[in-house]
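quick q for whoever's on today - can somebody do inverse folding on this one?? i tried earlier but teh output was garbage lol. tokens:
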């Protein structure tokens, strides 16, 4: 539920939005009320870098399950909506699915990436802001891990700016391997950098350029965060925190992926067994 108020005009002039955001007013009010109850401080820096009109790709780091909620807050000053590319599981979830669809985020089926890529292109061409997490999955290390090339490729194909941004503090509320903590008084910082303008001439280099820009933003954000990183579970090992190193986090990701695959196979077997029983009855 990113923050926004719908300006859907393009650089060439007003455009007709692809979607009608009937749910946004109530979602924004509910989010504001919830943030007030939580006494949540949200410090947005560099928000002027998000264009007030026209398509743009917003690239964010991924450290929490609530990143897509708070990440859209970066566009509030520009009065833009952010259509986040999010995994299919969120859209098929009984509770989250209807909300994700009503807010017109983009469903990503990792088995059919071309469909979601084409949908993102369509949104960008219509002057929307598309949010993407280049790391694809949450970083247990709280640092930037390997980037996918989708963000610069999208921006280059449509000819729109690629805006780097980072979140910090969201991992303290809800992330992998730690209990949720929605207690009062948390602080979230969002830092937005100057837009990049990829051309697709050298996609590997342009992906590296995006990661470098986001790494610089993340370093600045961590160093200026109200609480020091030393000894904190939510801070990278390279900053004195106790989060796994990138190498350790990579091994944990492999284990998690293997366990998920096992669980999926077991579930499918169970489904087939039940279907066979029903067929015999």
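ok took a stab at it. sequence:
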């Amino acid at each position: 539920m990113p923050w926004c108020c719908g300006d859907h005009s393009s650089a060439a002039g007003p455009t007709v939005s692809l979607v009608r955001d009937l749910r946004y007013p109530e979602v924004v009010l509910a989010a504001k009320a919830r943030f007030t109850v939580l006494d949540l401080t949200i410090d947005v820096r560099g928000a002027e870098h998000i264009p007030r009109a026209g398509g743009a790709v917003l690239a964010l780091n991924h450290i929490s399950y609530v990143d897509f909620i708070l990440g859209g807050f970066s566009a509030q000053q520009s009065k833009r909506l952010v259509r986040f590319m999010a995994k299919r599981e969120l859209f098929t979830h009984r509770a989250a699915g209807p909300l994700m669809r009503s807010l017109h985020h983009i469903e990503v089926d990792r088995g059919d990436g071309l469909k979601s890529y084409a949908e993102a292109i369509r949104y960008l061409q219509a002057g929307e802001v598309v949010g993407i997490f280049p790391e694809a999955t949450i970083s247990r290390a709280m640092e930037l891990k390997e980037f996918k090339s989708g963000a610069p490729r999208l921006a280059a194909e449509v000819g729109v700016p690629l805006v780097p941004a980072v979140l910090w503090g969201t991992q303290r509320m809800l992330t992998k391997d730690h209990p949720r903590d929605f207690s009062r008084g948390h602080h979230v910082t969002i830092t937005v950098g100057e837009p990049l303008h990829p051309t697709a001439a050298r996609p590997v280099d342009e992906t590296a350029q995006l990661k470098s820009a986001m790494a610089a933003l993340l370093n600045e954000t961590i160093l200026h965060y109200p609480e020091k990183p030393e000894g904190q579970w939510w801070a990278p090992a390279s900053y004195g925190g106790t989060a796994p190193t990138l190498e350790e986090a990579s091994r944990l990701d492999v284990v998690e992926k293997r366990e998920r695959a096992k669980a999926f196979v077991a579930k499918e077997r169970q489904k087939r067994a039940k279907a066979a029983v029903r067929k015999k009855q």
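fwiw Helices lie at 24-37, 67-71, 88-92, 96-102, 113-125, 150-158, 203-224, 246-280. also The domain at 24-243 is CATH 3.40.1130 (Glycerol-3-phosphate (1)-acyltransferase). so keep that in mind when u check it
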